[in-house]
Design brief:
13 strands, Alpha-Beta Plaits, 2 domains, Rossmann fold, alpha/beta
Length: 283
């Protein structure tokens, strides 16, 4: 049986004149991978801190495991912040021993790469390895809710694949996973997505549902650079794709008005990245 693990109801948070989160409502359930998607500065980290009770909302309510956030509810969460939450002057083994001790569990087993640097201080190892250490620390006590803020930033392709394999394993075991990303290939691995722009929720649903409601005009001009310049001068966002130009959210009539009747034009389904561009512009 699925259970609601975290939810917000119309939460807002400002820092001075900056409205970081603007009336956002969402919920997530056990066994689900929920992707919180948005550009840098969109408000993703602030929303996470509100959900965890690390920031107080100016308006609205937050609940963790069907109650207001407390130290007890946070003990059921594994949290990997962007800052990683590791101690630079402690070794890999010492960091994992400390974090496991806080939750009263044994330190996690190290893979070969981390075993080789077990006695090296965190500040002396590459960022990709540091993120893997932080990920292990968040998982060590088998949390019911795993919260990962940009977990793959600075991690190579193989490391990213390994992290996502573990994320899927956690969800398969019944944990809920809330993960922030601005990588569309990672967003497509989530069960459900929430798009945040300028602190506001602008779309939610599966990747297929979000993409289905948006279209992109594709043009094949004889002179792509000149056509690109003309479209951008007209205020349109353009994505080159080989000899094609893709114009998310534009109408055939508007693109034809800029390029004329000569280049072939067609309306195509948007990609997830293009849908996000459309939503960002609309907001």
């Amino acid at each position: 049986m699925t259970a609601v693990l975290a939810e917000s109801d119309g939460v807002s948070r400002s820092f001075g004149a900056n409205l970081a989160v603007d009336r956002v409502s969402l919920s997530m359930t056990s066994g689900e991978i929920l992707g919180l998607v948005g550009a840098n500065g969109a408000g993703k980290t602030t929303l996470i801190r509100l959900l965890l009770g690390l920031e107080r909302p100016d308006a609205g309510n937050v609940r963790l495991f069907d109650q207001p956030p407390t130290r007890a509810t946070r003990s059921r969460i594994g949290y990997m912040p962007q800052t990683l939450g590791l101690y630079d002057d402690l070794t890999v083994a010492e960091n994992l021993s400390f974090s496991a001790g806080v939750f009263g569990v044994d330190p996690p087993r190290l893979d070969d790469d981390l075993a080789r640097v077990a006695d090296t201080t965190i500040k002396a190892i590459p960022l990709g390895l540091r993120r893997r250490v932080a990920f292990l620390a968040a998982l060590a006590h088998r949390p019911e809710l795993l919260v990962l803020d940009e977990p793959t930033s600075g991690v190579g392709p193989l490391g990213r694949a390994d992290l996502w394999e573990t994320i899927h394993e956690s969800a398969d075991d019944g944990s809920g996973v809330l993960v922030t990303t601005h990588h569309m290939d990672e967003a497509e691995q989530c069960d459900r997505l929430v798009f945040i722009t300028a602190g506001r929720l602008v779309a939610s649903g599966t990747a297929g549902e979000i993409v289905a409601s948006h279209a992109t005009v594709e043009a094949t001009p004889a002179d792509p650079p000149a056509a690109l310049e003309s479209l951008e001068r007209a205020g349109m966002s353009v994505l080159p794709a080989g000899r094609h130009l893709r114009v998310p959210g534009a109408s055939l009539a508007n693109v034809r008005a800029v390029l004329g009747a000569v280049p072939p034009l067609s309306e195509q389904p948007s990609t997830l990245e293009e849908a996000f561009m459309i939503l960002a512009r609309a907001s």
